What we know:
325 residues, alpha/beta, 8-stranded parallel beta barrel, 13 helices, 12 strands
Amino acid sequence: xxxxxxxxxxxxxxxxxxxxxxxxxxxxxxxxxxxxxxxxxxxxxxxxxxxxxxxxxxxxxxxxxxxxxxxxxxxxxxxxxxxxxxxxxxxxxxxxxxxxxxxxxxxxxxxxxxxxxxxxxxxxxxxxxxxxxxxxxxxxxxxxxxxxxxxxxxxxxxxxxxxxxxxxxxxxxxxxxxxxxxxxxxxxxxxxxxxxxxxxxxxxxxxxxxxxxxxxxxxxxxxxxxxxxxxxxxxxxxxxxxxxxxxxxxxxxxxxxxxxxxxxxxxxxxxxxxxxxxxxxxxxxxxxxxxxxxxxxxxxxxxxxxxxxxxxxxxxxxxxxxxxx
Length: 325
């Protein structure tokens, strides 16, 4: 397993085990298989585990797997879906969320604590479900005045090692956060050959993931790449039922030429998509959404194969699938 420096946090494995699959948020699995997958990942050299309360059972899986003692060298993240709470309550909500996550995982410290909501301008009107904005977005003034200071206080008190933001949206505001005088230590950024956020995109402006990644690197912020297979759109077949109108279904249809290329090359689409994500400039570690050991083994193979040959990268880019809007 290769490693890379994740901002100021230091070296981590190029692959991070995500909690969505383990927590049964990405297709069917069992607790026993999730625990076995977690152990297999650590045995293979994965040193970062990415969790969140929203990932259903993943924090309980971590507790069951490690009984309150992470293996040497393994680090853990968790998140808080803060949204836009009443004035003066953000700090208490963030710390209560951290407390609950650490209790669920039977740990006393998180290496990275993420804001799990979009960061937007105070006057942003989202294109999709703006009526729910207060639940999925944190306005800039609240982020600057309360969120940053709370995260920095948690660091000073030793409760977390670092803090980060989910760099999905609003893209222009995420870019502003990465250049702010107090920057996050880490950002999670869309990292796939479609440049697509799929169903978690709420806004109408361009997603700009590669610009977000490049800006993070220029500012010394670590980059965790997410959605390498775009929630299944870049695999041979979606592993769960979705409506034809769903963004993931639309991306799956859009990626037909990619699957055709994979068939021509005799390569599995998911494996090649992970290789592509790992090969993207500026990405320190790629978060896996695997739910079982078979999927994990394929990702380990993708990492072991190393950088994409230039000719193969050119063929993928030549399909013209990256979103421009």
